[in-house]
Amino acid sequence: MLPKFSAAAVAATLSLAATAAMAGAGDYAFEPVNPEMKKGDDVTLAVRLTNKQTGKPVSDAVIFKTRVDMAPDGMAEMESAVAPLPSKEPGVYAFKTDLPMAGRYQVTLSAKVQGEPDTVTGKVIVKATK
């Protein structure tokens, strides 16, 4: 004999399955840890990756592509090399880069998040001051 399920239980189960299926790369956000820093060489630039649905940091992401340039100030060709640094806090990803002049810099990141089939991408703007 097959078990009987109430219509409400079936609807709740389908709703949960639909919510899980709709989760995607857009459910994550990068943000600067310090949106403003002094210009210079070997600057530590840190970004936080969070799950927008839970507000929790994502500490198991693999950042596989980074770029730092001055695109916000119309100088996308002004690109700086980026080197990863060890993480000191869950969900925070740090990088060493050069910010040679005052202005706005765009940090473009691509990451793989555990359990997420799509690549998570984001752009963060930071300001370098004198």
From TrEMBL:
<keyword id="KW-0732">Signal</keyword>
<protein>
    <submittedName>
        <fullName>Heavy metal RND transporter</fullName>
    </submittedName>
</protein>
<dbReference type="Pfam" id="PF13115">
    <property type="entry name" value="YtkA"/>
</dbReference>
<dbReference type="InterPro" id="IPR032693">
    <property type="entry name" value="YtkA-like_dom"/>
</dbReference>
<feature type="domain" description="YtkA-like">
    <location>
        <begin position="24"/>
        <end position="109"/>
    </location>
</feature>
<feature type="signal peptide">
    <location>
        <begin position="1"/>
        <end position="23"/>
    </location>
</feature>
